[in-house]
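Changelog note: in this version the structure field was regenerated for every chain. One regenerated record is shown below for reference.
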Amino acid sequence: MNIGGSICALATPFAADGALDLAAFGRLLDHQLSGGTQALVVAGSTGEAHMLEHEEFDRLLAFAIEHVAGRIPVIAGTGEAGTAKTVAMTRRAQALGADAALVVVPYYVRPTQEGLYRHYLEVAEHGGLPLLLYNVPTRTGCDLLPQTVARLREHPAIIGIKEARNDRERISALAELVRADFVYLSGDDGSAGEAMLAGAAGTISVVANLVPQAFRALCDAATAGDRVAAERCHAALEPLVQALNCAPNPIAVKAGLPVLGLGLAMPRLPLVELNDGPDRARLHQALSSLASLATATA
């Protein structure tokens, strides 16, 4: 399975009554497919995974798999704080037909590196799906170190890592672990271009929800080693990336969905909708500028 390039961490649209809005989700999927997205993550942190009931997780993932119909890989977010729960969620995703699982470092409990190693081995052995590790210390309170990643990549079911740390030292350390059966994916839109130029095979992106075509252009340029084109794409995307940093993810990206007819802006509690004001205006302006640029270059 080839997982790389522009990968969207999908938001989960909700209706006004708080239920899943599968019609809007279908439009979001079509927006990704027409924009050139090369793989999709369903029920990751951007998809408010921990606000979903098990039955909703099943419906959302099954809908995506049926709608995409094998055109690109569908990756399920299955990470939980406990190992047994993570195995169970991964097996659930496998039964529904997911192509791979994205498994976040266990959050809040702060395991040791040996605990992380044993956690991921257990999921790899019993989850039934190829695994992408996911390291995002600002959310989990725990950092999966490159030395532990090097040990984990020896398991045949562990096929890569999404690394959300954006410092150059970490980017370089992860790039050194790349090989034919193990990919490094950036998990940070702001440093995605630099990570891919350094050796990352692609990026699991939030901003791609709104502008998949523009983000695909960045990924194509950076993974091809074209620094000039990558920097040009990055400069075009940067105002929107910065605008999305105004609130915890996915509050801001969901505020962009109604602008594109892709769903309501409402997340689930304890997250709240982005208020009208300068942040929302800045987001809308960045989207409008990218749309104008796309029209001018079409």
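Spot check on this record: Residues 240 and 286 are 5 Å apart (CA to CA). The longest helix spans residues 278-297.
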